[in-house]
Each structure stands twice: as structure tokens, then as C-alpha cells.
């Protein structure tokens, strides 16, 4: 992964080359109900390594529930999630993180009791010595690696365009910056798979384009991305593959052009008569 | 230039040096053993509060039962060193290990609880400990308490306020140092992350249950060690030292001084140990005045004493 080069954001919209690798994430007959209501029903799809794979659908289609199932926040009622060749259904999020999965949240989950840099440093958790005794007695090896983690976190913040917020309290940062802070924190874990839940929601056009560029750069660095997003311009511009959901079920799947041309997808979005 | 308060709040070693200097010169201003005694009690409370602040202020978990752990430490020393003739150091360590195991055993189930439910569960632990100490009178002397042997180590006997002042002072500096080290480490950030957002901590790999249990055990062990030494210093312990009111007092000290600030916990413990003594001039109205001061502080300084005072000063800078 080449994360350190080019700290400036490039805003050109050149498409990312498709790699079409082996499947990194495979969802098989996944379902989840909440008190009898089916949020996700018999859903199967595959995310190829290296792809930007978008999940779209109207509000309430089950996109965020799907994210929560894949990342272990919810346990599935049925079906399996296979990640990197292993069945990880129902595993705790921290175990999935150790396998190389990380995510951001639609409703921000920032550590508001820390600085921006510390937020990103928490993302380095899996790569640092987190035991009690070395921390209490400040072992030199721990201090050295911690200072490396600090540099690395600062580099990642530069990568997503947050250099000026290094020592800012997270609680004092604007919304758009916090969205990028979540991405930097997720990247600090060095994931193979990054799930982004509406990274552009609530952003203005300029900020959306910046996020767009960040996502492409991350993908170009070799990270597979699953993206939930309502900004169709962004989705159509950067996705290799799109899965469309409605009422928790798969409606359509294919390249952006195929999905955009699918009459059922159009009907689901516009509410046309069946 | 960062101000003195900023330095104390954010500087790691400078704050520690200031604390050490204050402890070193304080006896020069204390006219007699009565004042030394209050300083020693404040020191013991501060040790417990620094540990409790790791749990409450940094990791965001509540405990209304920490006096129970203090009490177990105190009685472990009283019973093992007194009734069974163990060397006091061994009794202290045995108490700490027992408290550590007990805290670990209860941590996993209760730390899954949140908010009021966690408060109730920890309250229950404290009450159980207190009841056991009251009723097992064969071992503990019951509600009247028990006398405790003096602390002996390598043939020396720790005796008198002057000696104990330095022992507690050194212990406090050590505990503050450990606490500052912990917070400025990957584990410390994981603890604060648990406070900030458990789900976000989990998705970057933090096993939140493990870290909550670890800090619960650590803070319980700090309380136990303080309890053991307190028992030897005071020479007499009663179940009141382990009861619900003592637990509330400890939490109040942490919140009053300023949550998520190690030196805030020290300041809270010291001020709230001194205040009841200073308020004796109000005689019958002492408790009312104390309550009014606490209420006013929390209304006008919701972040606690030290962080609020620090924020008032200009040139805010981070160390």
C-alpha cells in the first residue's frame, strides 16, 4: 500500500482501473429480522478484491443493516458472511478488524474526548503493544512505536486533507472534516476491506468531490471498498460494480451503466407503478 | 508560555514534578500531627481517586462500589497480618491479588451493563462486601471493627505521622506516574476510545470488554493497596470504610476535581478531604454548607475544578 505519496488531494475524475480480482467478501443468503420485520432477506453478492463496490437503494432498503451485519455489529438471523476465505458470520467487530476489515459510520462515531490525531492513532490499535504493564512502566519499545504511530497518523491526516486539524479537539471540528477523520482512522488500521457508509452525506459539492478523490486514492492504494452512498453522481463515477437493494432484497446488480438502465431500479427510486 | 495550570493538566513530567515539590514542602507549613494526619488521609483518598478516575473519567464506566475494594484491602491486611501473623507486605499483596481476581470475576458480566444498570451492579458489590465485613465478626470484629498491627518491613516499623506522610506521598507520586504513563499509551487511548464510542473502538480492533475489565481490575487493585496501607496507618478499621457512603464520597471527589484529569482527581480528593475539616466552624450547619458548595461547583463548573480553572486561563496550549 502506498499511502504516503502525494499529500495533496487530486480532484480529477479519472476512473480507477478495474482489477477484477478474486472475491474478498462473499455474502451468502444473508438475512436479518427485527421483531418479525425482515430488514435483509436472502441476500447474496460478492465483492471482488480491488473493486469499489457500491450498495444503493432507497431509504430503508437495508443498506446500513447490511453494513452492520458484515462488520459484526449485528448478528445475522440466517446466511453467512465469508471474508478473505473464512466464514466470519456473527464474529465480533474487533475480530473482523484484526482480519482486515474496517468501516466508517453514517452517523459519525468520533471519539469526541480526544484530539483529531489521537482519533487516528486509535486506528493503529492493532499494530501497537496494547498491554497494561508496558504501558504503566513506559517500556522504551512501546514509546518508540507510539511515536512512529503518531507520525503515521499525521501522514494519513495529510492524505485525507486534514493537516490543519492535527492537534485540534475532535469536538471543535466541522462536520465535513469529521467525515474525513473517520476515513483516516479506518485507514490507520491498514484494512484490506473498507466499508464506507454514506461518506458524502451532508457535504457540499466541493467537499463531496474531495471525498470522491480520497476514495479513489485509497482504492488505487489496493484497498477494496464497499460504498453506501446516495450521491448518484459519485456512485456512478467511481464504482466498478453496483448492487441495488430494495426492501432488504437484491433488486439488480452490474456495472453502473447496467444498473442505471435497469427499469426496476428506476421504479424503486421514483416510485413508478408496478 | 503555558500557565502553571496548563502544565499540570497537560504536561506529563512537569505536572509530576510540581506534585512532588508540593508534597516535599508541605510539611514545613503543617504545624502539628493533626494537620499531618489530614494530609495523609487526603493522600490515601487521592491514590484511590487516581485509580477510580482511570475507570470513570477516562474509560467512562461508573463504579459505586470502590470502597468495597478499599475495605477488602484494609481487612486483608488486618486479618492476615494480625490474626494469622503474616508479614504485612505479603498480606498487602494477598489482598491486592484477591481484589484483582474478584474484580476480574465480576467485571465481564457487569461491564456489559451501561449507565444506571452498571451503577446498580457496582453498588451491589460494595454493599455485599460491607455486609460481609459487618457480619463475619469472628474474623473482622463486626461493626466495631478491628485493630491492625503496625506495618513492618525488613525489621523497620512504620510509625508516626511523619513517617507515614512520606510513605503516602511517595505512593501518590508513583500512582500518578503510572496513571499518566497509562493514559499516554495505546492502551490508554483504547480506554478513552471506549468512552468516546464503543462501536467505533470495536471496528478498529479494540476488544472493548477486555479493556473495560482491565481498567476495572487496575482501579480496584489501587484501592486495595491504599486500603491495606491505610489499615496499618490508622491501626483501627471499621466496616464504615467500605460502605456505600464511602464509595459515593470517592466518586464525588473524582467528579468534583475534574473527570479525565489525573491531577484533577488528586485535587478533588485533597479539597474534599480538607473541606469538612475547614467547615467545622459552621458547627450544626456543616453538612448543609458542604452540600451547597458541592452543588454550586457542579452547577458553575460542570467539568470539575481543575479543568474549569485551567480553561479560564489564557494561552491554551497542549503539551
TrEMBL record, chain B:
GO cellular component terms, semicolon-separated: plasma membrane
GO molecular function per UniProt: branched-chain amino acid transmembrane transporter activity
Keywords: Cell membrane, Membrane, Transmembrane, Transmembrane helix
Cellular compartments annotated: Cell membrane
Chief location bin: membrane
Membrane disposition: Multi-pass membrane protein
InterPro entries, A to Z: ABC_transp_permease, LivM-like
Transmembrane regions listed in the UniProt entry: 12-30, 36-56, 63-82, 88-107, 116-133, 164-183, 213-234, 254-276, 288-313
Protein name in UniProt: Branched-chain amino acid ABC transporter permease
Amino acid at each position: 500500500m502506498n499511502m504516503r505519496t502525494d499529500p495533496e488531494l487530486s480532484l480529477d475524475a479519472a476512473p480507477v482501473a478495474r482489477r477484477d480480482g478474486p472475491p474478498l467478501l462473499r455474502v451468502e443468503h444473508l438475512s436479518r429480522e427485527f421483531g418479525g420485520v425482515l430488514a435483509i432477506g436472502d441476500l447474496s453478492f460478492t465483492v471482488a478484491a480491488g473493486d469499489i463496490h457500491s450498495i444503493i437503494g432507497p431509504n430503508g432498503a437495508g443498506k446500513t443493516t447490511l453494513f452492520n451485519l458484515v462488520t459484526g455489529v449485528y448478528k445475522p438471523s440466517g446466511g453467512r458472511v465469508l471474508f478473505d476465505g473464512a466464514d466470519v458470520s456473527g464474529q465480533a467487530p474487533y475480530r473482523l478488524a484484526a482480519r482486515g476489515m474496517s468501516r466508517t459510520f453514517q452517523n459519525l462515531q468520533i471519539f469526541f474526548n480526544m484530539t483529531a490525531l489521537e482519533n487516528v492513532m486509535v486506528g493503529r490499535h492493532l499494530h501497537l503493544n496494547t498491554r497494561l504493564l508496558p504501558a504503566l512502566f513506559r517500556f522504551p519499545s512501546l514509546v518508540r512505536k507510539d511515536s512512529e504511530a503518531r507520525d503515521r497518523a499525521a501522514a494519513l491526516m495529510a492524505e485525507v486533507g486534514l493537516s490543519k486539524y492535527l492537534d485540534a479537539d475532535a469536538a471543535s471540528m466541522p462536520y465535513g472534516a469529521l467525515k474525513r477523520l473517520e476515513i483516516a482512522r479506518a485507514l490507520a488500521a491498514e484494512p484490506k476491506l473498507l466499508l464506507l457508509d454514506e461518506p458524502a452525506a451532508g457535504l457540499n459539492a466541493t467537499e463531496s468531490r474531495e471525498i470522491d478523490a480520497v476514495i479513489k486514492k485509497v482504492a488505487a492504494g489496493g484497498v477494496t471498498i464497499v460504498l453506501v452512498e446516495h450521491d448518484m453522481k459519485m456512485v456512478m463515477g467511481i464504482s466498478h460494480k453496483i448492487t441495488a437493494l430494495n426492501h432488504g432484497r437484491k433488486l439488480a446488480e452490474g456495472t453502473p451503466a447496467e444498473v442505471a438502465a435497469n427499469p426496476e431500479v428506476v421504479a424503486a427510486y421514483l416510485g413508478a407503478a408496478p | 508560555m503555558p500557565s502553571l495550570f496548563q502544565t499540570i493538566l497537560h504536561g506529563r513530567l512537569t505536572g509530576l514534578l510540581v506534585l512532588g515539590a508540593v508534597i516535599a514542602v508541605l510539611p514545613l507549613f503543617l504545624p502539628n500531627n493533626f494537620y499531618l494526619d489530614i494530609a495523609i488521609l487526603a493522600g490515601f483518598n487521592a491514590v484511590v481517586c487516581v485509580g477510580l478516575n482511570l475507570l470513570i473519567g477516562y474509560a467512562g464506566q461508573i463504579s459505586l462500589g470502590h470502597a468495597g475494594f478499599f475495605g477488602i484491602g484494609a481487612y486483608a491486611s488486618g486479618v492476615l497480618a494480625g490474626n494469622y501473623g503474616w508479614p504485612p507486605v505479603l498480606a498487602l499483596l494477598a489482598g491486592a491479588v484477591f481484589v484483582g481476581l474478584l474484580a476480574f470475576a465480576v467485571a465481564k458480566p457487569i461491564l456489559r451493563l451501561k449507565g444506571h444498570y452498571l451503577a446498580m451492579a457496582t453498588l451491589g458489590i460494595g454493599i455485599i462486601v460491607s455486609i460481609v465485613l459487618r457480619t463475619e465478626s469472628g474474623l473482622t470484629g463486626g461493626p466495631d471493627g478491628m485493630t491492625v498491627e503496625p506495618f513492618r518491613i525488613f525489621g523497620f516499623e512504620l510509625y508516626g505521622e511523619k513517617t507515614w506522610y512520606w510513605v503516602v506521598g511517595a505512593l501518590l507520586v508513583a500512582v500518578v506516574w503510572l496513571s499518566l504513563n497509562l493514559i499516554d499509551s495505546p492502551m490508554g487511548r483504547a480506554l478513552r476510545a471506549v468512552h468516546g464510542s464503543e462501536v467505533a473502538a470495536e471496528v478498529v480492533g479494540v476488544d472493548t470488554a477486555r479493556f473495560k475489565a482491565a481498567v476495572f481490575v487496575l482501579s480496584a487493585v489501587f484501592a486495595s493497596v491504599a486500603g491495606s496501607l491505610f489499615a496499618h496507618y490508622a491501626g483501627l478499621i471499621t466496616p464504615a470504610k467500605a460502605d456505600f457512603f464511602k464509595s459515593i464520597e470517592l466518586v464525588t471527589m473524582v467528579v468534583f476535581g475534574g473527570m479525565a484529569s489525573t491531577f484533577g482527581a488528586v485535587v478533588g480528593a485533597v479539597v474534599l478531604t480538607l473541606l469538612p475539616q475547614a467547615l467545622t466552624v459552621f458547627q450544626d450547619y456543616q453538612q448543609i454548607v458542604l452540600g451547597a458548595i458541592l452543588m454550586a461547583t457542579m452547577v458553575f463548573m460542570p467539568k470539575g475544578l481543575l479543568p474549569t480553572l485551567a480553561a479560564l486561563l489564557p494561552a491554551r496550549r497542549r503539551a
